[in-house]
Fold each of these.
Amino acid sequence: MKEVTSFSKFSKKQKIDFLIKTFFNGSFDIRERIESFWHKSESFQRAFDEFSENTITNFFLPYGVVPNLMINNDLYCVPMVTEESSVVAASAKSAKFWMTRGGVKTKVISTAKVGQVHFFWYGQTPRLESFFKGLVPELKKCVAPLVHSMEKRGGGIKSIELVDKTSIEKGLFQIHVKFETCDAMGANFINSVLEAFATKLKESVEASTFFTSEERKIDVIMSILSNYTPECLVRSEVSCSIEDLDHLGLSMDPEVYADRLRKAVLIANSDVYRATTHNKGIMNGIDAVVLATGNDFRAVESCAHAYAARSGQYRSLSDVKIEDGSFTFSLELPLALGTVGGLTSLHPLAKISLEILGQPSAPKLMEIAASIGLAQNFGALNSLVTSGIQKGHMKMHLFNILNHFNTSEDEREKAKAFFVDKVVSHNAVKEFLNGLRKYH
Ligand code: MEV
């Protein structure tokens, strides 16, 4: 394709025209297809268009719900947005099993978020430290109007620390700030505070009479929140007697089954190839809730994986304990989520999700998302150490292939019966349908 200039200034129609001309030989079908995904309400569509840039249409994903997830003795119906077959079904199956065994017990351990100002300053660290001590009250004062409403809600700045990073490179320091952002994810609030700190720091260093002229030189590189929030931590666990696991309809002794689950986690803890897939399974559940509630799944993902690698080796985020005839399956991870502000209040379906969840606080949403992650991981490991993952996947895979071939209700029923004990592949389904259709 040739370079296109001023694309962002094109109207939506012009952008679509450009795509049709450049990539689809001017086909009108494509325009119809693109436009068929526009929302019928103009105001909703305008909102969607304005979430991002260069928007031409909307991209649909399935929105499902998992009922019967018991969390701290309350029942939830959890909205999940995911395109992957079997994810919602696996969570629902686990939720149902654990509902009658006390449900998920979950607890938010901490809720601190972090932001940093990274800068270079060349001098003796103790001199900067004593200057910084005097600067802290001024830093707080300069952001007072910004933090006022957050403080009224019980949040604000929790700590401001100067960190010496000169072992990385001469002159490198940072201001490391901890925040409480209550029910907001808080990215805008944190970044605004940090940028105000950076300006104040630079002005104060440059105007300082305490410093020599050499020491008055400072280079602020950047001010930005950190998506690593190890102190915004939640833990969920389920527990039952090993005997009770037999109610999963096992074809093996429950002791053996529990030990196979323990070994599955052991493998994920010691092998990065397995750990990545194991944690991906956890995020299958968590991301789906994060998306359904209009939260930032990239932030949640990068944080979860950084946390999984905190020991220096990337490990499982979940754990199994077998003690005195009892089986406990747990998950602990940081989750920086919000239930006010941002997309949570702008996306009409995010608003519906929060309504279904009973307008949770951010900590409550952390508990819900972690509990779905736990249910999802239990469902995946349960399949993996028993029948294997393909059995469950194949059914959904079959439905997707049948949709591709525009099958009738009768053909679907016949295909379901035929493939019940066979490997599902695109070709196998095509052949089966060809056979059926030949005689009609
Ligand atoms: C597939 O999306 C997720 C699993 O691979 C997770 C796992 O292996 O634990 C089934």
Amino acid sequence: MQEPATQIPADAAPSDGGRPLTFAGLTSHRRAQLAQLGIHTTLDLLNWLPRRYEEFQNGLSIDQIKPGQRVSVAGMVIQTRLHRRRPMRFEVLLEDRTGRCVLTWFNRRDLAEKIKPETLLQAAGKAGLYKGRLQLVQPDIKVVDKLEMAPRSDAIEPVYPASADVSKRFIADLVARHLDECLADVVEWFSEAYLTERHLMPLRQAYRQLHKPSTTADITRAQRTIAYHEIILFQLALEIRRYHQKHSVTAERLRTDDRVDERIRALIPFELTAAQNRVIAELRTDLARQEPMNRLLQGDVGSGKTVVALYAMLMAVAAGKQAALLAPTEILAEQHFYSISNLLAKSRVQMELLTAGTSAAKRTDILTRLASGELHMIVGTHSLLGDPVEFRHLALLVVDEQHKFGVEQRAMLRHRQANVHTLVMTATPIPRTLAMTYFGDLDVSIIDGLPPGRCPIATRKITSRQLPEVYQYMEQQLRAGRQAYVVAPAIEEGVKELDNVNAVLTDMAAHLPADVRMQPLHSRLTAEERRQTMERFRAGEIDVLVSTTIIEVGVDVPNATLMLIRQAERFGLAQLHQLRGRIGRSNLKSLCILCSDDDSDEAQARLSAMVKNASGFRVAEEDLRLRGMGQMVGTRQSGMPEFLFPDFLMEIPFLQMTRRDAAAVILADPHLISPEHARLRHEVYRRYESTLLLADVA
Ligand code: ADP
Ligand code: MG
């Protein structure tokens, strides 16, 4: 059974409207408390879905009860006992015709007044064994006049998320009492025939099942129904954008002939792999079209995406247009600028670097030359997209490490550069299910495999007791002319229990010979200091870089073959894989050492996944399996909208269905203007107008 997110975001409701909660007997005080939870209307209340369900078996006789079951029983009180020592405990011995069981409550002196021997009771709760006797702890009870055995039946009870002020029980009662009133406000989006065809139910029926379930199978079908409604909304939003991109915006056609192709290839000092060539062919097809390219390039760390992007950028330059490369961090922008400059050394292509660290004078100069068209290519960070930056004729925008930007940022980018071809790249491989939603509006290219001659990276896991051996091994490697990275989760002393760069440096100085050249690298250094450190590391003037995750993306120093990650359990799998991708960039043998003293199952499972899997796609799948879709997509930070039932995003056939359906709707009615789509249109725009910038599309 699916469990919806605990805190349902106010904007996650698949419906809007509804009426304010003005039920008779609901005080304004209560209403305020509910409002705190985001429950303002009847539909909000319906969307406050149970977190889980408890199954009750009713009408069992005491001798039929097994420990672990949730049951309701009826019987007569034989004996009561109040233990006054703290925690105060009240015990009741209950008997029916078949046997006896104990009911136990803590801190419920009030019950001692109410329950006396010979009281007739119904009690419901979870059965357990305590000192060999059957007991129900903290059961719900009802005093009755007559002992009637309830008919034998199973019941499913919803358990609601609650707050300190509003208890589960209060919400359960409120919903139970007013379910019909609330359901009356639900407007259906699809016809019954449409839903039946997809093994779904009408929305109203789905809400009824979720709040007042009859069988477990019905709950699942109801959850699928709600999931369908929320996911198709997202797919529709993506389809609308996609349609708009294809039909109402035109970009510069960039054609290449063999001569241009030859000239570009002459700049690349190695043979491109088959995968790289395939992607280049895809890009050439896209770029030759008038409709703007909107393509995602996926490839594992070190697979050689940059040179593919460079090919496309040079196509723009060859056509007399401009190209821009956007990176999420200054270090990565500098790295790209450095490596591309090397490749372009013998060409006449004019390229500059623009980041927050660029001096004011240089910046003015760059902006002038971008506007005049004298600059052909620009590499930079977000500052590249700032308002004053004007291009003479930007034809291609490449965004590296796309996963560092969210869905909203991407929409923003496309909004600003609508008539520009866009290539986004990511090295955090996206499981197919995620790609189909998060990146649903993009075409996807994949570079599988690494350039030839790469030695796979070995990965080991150790505890800090083995660090002295690691330092010995490190010394050998450094003597052999190699370089190393050491990564720590914090910069300096401060956060308790976190290894920090400064302490690690001190520790290593005590273990390694004095002539080993070590330097820290982290975000507290100035941009200039960081740039210099990177340059010296690249030039081999530094042996060991002790750093935070700042080196996570893009840094490319093939001579570095050893990486030690301290407190590796502090990092996510995707992050560990990114970090590990800094080594193994040549034909030299590389080793990644994950140091962790956390022996919890969870930490060990994650680190083992790293040791076992070298491929980023496998790591990503493992990550998905260990964390679940909810965790992967559920954060605001990822830019992914939150879903009530994110686990359905993992079902490929289900996702395919929502995508197909959304595509069919938009194909028939691109702007959702036909009356039958009025409701859908309303919902799509209500939910995604601002985040996906649909406003400019309509
Ligand atoms: P990523 O896909 O992680 O961005 P890069 O583009 O940084 O990878 O490439 C990693 C390294 O591999 C770079 O040093 C690049 O020059 C090199 N490289 C890329 N393609 C090839 C190739 N076909 N043959 C040899 N080396 C290559
Ligand atoms: Mg890269």
Amino acid sequence: MHLHKYEKWWLVFGTGTLIAFLIILGIGAFHSGSHPNNSRKTIDYERVEDFEPFNNPGVHKVEGKDWDYEVVLIASAFNYNPAEIELPLNAKVKFIATTKDVIHGFQATGTNINMMLEPGYISEYTTVVNKTGEYLIVCNEYCGTGHAYMYSKLKVVDPNAANDSE
Ligand code: CUA
């Protein structure tokens, strides 16, 4: 079979970009951990506060698990409970979140924490917070008139640093 020179170039270019795309996707999924919620756990969204762990939202230190902290979070129009999250540097954290009404987002900008919170489902994400700072948490799913005002803050603090940063 004879291939014209330009055809060969395009074949190489097409195959090359496909491979590059798959590599980028693979790094994102397996290295950076960006993937959809597993959504395997369900909950009655009208009564989330009646069930564990959502009867006690907040940041909790845990023992005997593969992670050090749990952030139990309830989103509703148009705020988050807890309103702010503070975690120590290098803590392994499991976020356990759901919504009381409509679909909300939970994205900590500048980190790989980004979840979609769907009514009736529990979203979980485990990560290590390895950079100090204050990160804006935004709702990135349109949820109504107050959507633009739905935000919160994640603070990652170094417990060993001198307390003169502010
Ligand atoms: Cu909640 Cu947009």
